[in-house]
Design brief:
This protein is mostly helical. 84% of the residues lie in helices and 0% in strands. The longest helix has 28 residues, at 63-90. The protein starts with a helix and ends with a helix. 4% of the residues are buried.
């Protein structure tokens, strides 16, 4: 692996670890509500995007494939938050 690619993967790994710690801190501090859920899900989306782009090597594929995977990731992270928000609005 070239030196630049190794540094980039190490940097992304560090950011993934940092976002994981942020998610854990948000859940253990006692934050409740949709804002904390949105923060945790946004961190999950960012982590998923970095995994797709850097570890699964989607940066070099056709834009259609990237869009497909990113739309799937967006749905996976937005649907839980929207479901909870709709439940709150209903009752």
């Amino acid at each position: 692996m070239p030196r630049i690619a190794a540094r980039q993967v190490t940097r992304v790994w560090g950011l993934l670890a940092l976002l994981t710690l942020l998610s854990l801190a948000a859940s253990h501090v006692g934050w409740t509500g949709h804002a904390s859920n949105a923060l945790i899900l946004a961190a999950a989306f960012a982590k998923g995007r970095w995994v797709l782009m850097d570890f699964l090597k989607l940066r070099g594929v056709q834009p259609g494939w990237r869009a497909l995977f990113l739309c799937w990731l967006g749905l996976v992270t937005v649907i839980p938050w929207a479901t909870a928000a709709l439940a709150l609005l209903r009752g």
